[in-house]
Each structure stands twice: as C-alpha cells, then as structure tokens.
Amino acid sequence: MYTYPFKLEKLINEISKLPGIGPKMAERTAIYLLKKGQPAADALSEALDGIKDIKFCNICGNISTLDTCAVCTDEKRDKGVICVVESPEDVITIEHTGKHAGVYHVLYGVINPLNNILPENLKISSLVNRAGAPDVREIILAINHTVEGDATSLYIADAVKTVKPDLKITRLAKGLPTGSDIKYADEITLGQAILERKEV
Amino acid sequence: MYTYPFKLEKLINEISKLPGIGPKMAERTAIYLLKKGQPAADALSEALDGIKDIKFCNICGNISTLDTCAVCTDEKRDKGVICVVESPEDVITIEHTGKHAGVYHVLYGVINPLNNILPENLKISSLVNRAGAPDVREIILAINHTVEGDATSLYIADAVKTVKPDLKITRLAKGLPTGSDIKYADEITLGQAILERKEV
C-alpha cells in the first residue's frame, strides 16, 4: 500500500502537535506547503527561528524583545496599577482599548485542577511579591468570567490580601456588550446586568 | 501602545498564511510555540526543511520520494486502470480501502471558474495523454460529488473521449453511506439512492 514519504509524514506529525490542529488539517497544511514549494516553507522556518530572540519580561512575564518589556520600562506607565491577565493576547487586546495606563502581569493560564494547572504552575507568587511593593495601589483582575477565572480571581485576591490587606483589588465589569440586543442576550449575562444596574 | 515584538509579528504573519488559519489562531499558535521554546520550533523548522526532498511523480503527479512514485513503479499495480483524484489526500484514503489495484492521477483541484481554476490549471492534459496509451482500459473518476466535481468529471470524460472514444470511464457510486440511518439522510443523497437502487 502506498503511504506518504517519510519526510512528509514527519511534517504532518509536527504540524499536528500545534494547538487546535487535528491530523486531517495537519495533512492538508503539509500538502499546501509542499505545493507552495521550498520558499514558503523557508519563510516559515526563518520566522520560527526568530523565537530564540523573543524573551519573557522579568517583571510582568509578558512577551518582550529585551529582558524587561516596553510597558515595564515605560516612564509614562503608572506602576501603581497592575492589570492581571491570563495570556499575552489579552495584553494586546487591552492595549487596543487605550483605557489602561498602568502595567501588566501575565499569569499564563488559570487555576484548573482537572487539567493539572495548580496555583504554583501560574505566575501568582511573583504577582503577590509585586503587589507587596509600597507604590502599588490597585490590582485589576482582567481574568475571563469563567468558572476557572472566578476561582483564580478569588485565589489571587486572598493571596494578595495576606501581604497587603487594604490593597484595592478590582475585576472587570460584567454586563451586556456595547451594541448588543437584549432579546439575544444569554440569561446569565442579562441577569448579571440587571443585578449590577447603574443609576443614570 | 505596546505591540508584539517584530519577530513574533512576523511569525504570526507566516502562520496566518496557512490554509484555514485565521489571525487569532495564528496568534495563539505563535504564542504556543514561544511558550514551548526553541526545541519545538526547531523540530517544526527541521520538518519543513524536509520539503525540499519531496517530489511530485512525473507520471501521476502524486507525492513521491523519487521522480516516479511507488505506485507507478510497482510491477503489481494494474497500469490499465487509472483512478483520477482531486488531491494526494484522496490517494491515501483510497489506498486504505484496498479496493483499487490500478494506478492514480492527481488533478490538484477541480474546475472552478469563480476561483479562477480553469482546466489548464489542472493536470488534465497529462491525463488525456496517459488515457491515450493502448494498455489503458478504464478511467475511474474518483472526484467529489460536488457541482465543481461533476463539471470537472464531464469535462474530463469529453476530453478523453476525443482521443479514445470507446474507453470505459466510470465515477464512484452515489448512495447512502454504509451504517447510515435513512431517517437522517439528506434528501439529495436519499433521492439518488432510490433512483440508483439495485436488485438484490
């Protein structure tokens, strides 16, 4: 029986290790690259090689070109307000809003015991250390509103309060998205929006 | 405003060129590789480098380690029956059935004028040449049962018949999949299965 050449099987196998890519999609991607030819594969290889020059900030853990990231070294950013996020993608998304002038702290996940992600696997102890600094006034927990996100937020709030009991700790507001239609809102979001209604 | 390091942007850009991968998934994949570290990226780079050693068979167009593929050089395969497929993935799928003892011809697509894929962009003329050889007895059109697939099948049948009017040209049977439930079958498939019913 005919099978793919060994080197193609190897490429399919490597591609299928990527998140969200199943064996069929890996096969299609490998054959796509094969049809595109060596220049396309070389461009991807070269980009992959660039990974060695990318670092993680030694303060906030965010992705950086230098040992300390552009946000942490920026004189204009307010070091007193730390926005805690799950992933580097969230930093970019929040930066696009232009509403956060402080610094960040990237956890790289949320507590999820079923998937063996425990507090010690996340960058929580370094956050507690940072929060203990005298100039820190607020921790914004910009963690997703999921069961795991809620548990992680509670855990962090407890941990931070042990070192600095009167520190202001906030979470992002829950409610209806801007431009959304009430009749299409899910019950939980709408219920929360009613409970947390604001005076106009 | 903080943005990703240039080399990470470049990697995201290269990954987003792959089929079926949007900008958000490319971002997630790049950060996944970054977190995995250089060895994971190197393994993928090395696999990509293997593409240069993979060839396309000079007879059937299928993927091959040598100039002519393992099927076309196999003495035991029946060179008189050519199975025409859209892609190399289809060759593997048909090989797994063990029901085709002949050879293949890979078109690399179907005719689709809306996407600028015309007969001359597909490996149709080389198929017509092969079909003209005196030992070829049958062309099996194992092309998907889609509108474009039907049009391509008709086009190929016409083209082949101009060089060899009495050649047997077949298409794969349409009908209900094995193990399927009639009440869940779509109307077109079920209708076709009724029209093409067979005596038991």
Helices and strands in order, then pairings?
The structure is a homodimer of 200-residue chains.
Chain A lengths: L5 H11 L6 H14 L1 H12 L5 E2 L6 E2 L5 H4 L4 E8 L2 H10 L4 E5 L18 H7 L6 E5 L4 H17 L4 E4 L15 H9 L5
Parallel strand pairs in A: 3-4, 3-5, 5-6
Antiparallel strand pairs in A: 1-2
Helix pairs in contact in A: 1-2, 6-7
What would your notes on this structure say?
Two copies of one chain form a homodimer. With 200 residues, chain A is α/β, with parallel strands linked by helices. Chain A has two domains: 6-52, Helicase, Ruva Protein, domain 3 (Orthogonal Bundle); 78-171, Dna Topoisomerase Vi A Subunit, Chain: A, domain 2 (3-Layer(aba) Sandwich), CATH 3.40.1360. Helices cover 42% and strands 13% of the residues of chain A. Chain A has helices at residues 6-16, 23-36, 38-49, 70-73, 88-97, 125-131, 147-163, 187-195, and strands at residues 55-56, 63-64, 78-85, 102-106, 138-142, 168-171. In chain A, the strands form two sheets. The first copy, chain A, has a four-stranded parallel sheet. In chain A, strands 1-2 form a two-stranded antiparallel ribbon. The radius of gyration of chain A is 22 Å and the shape is globular. The model of chain A has no long low-confidence stretch (mean pLDDT 92).
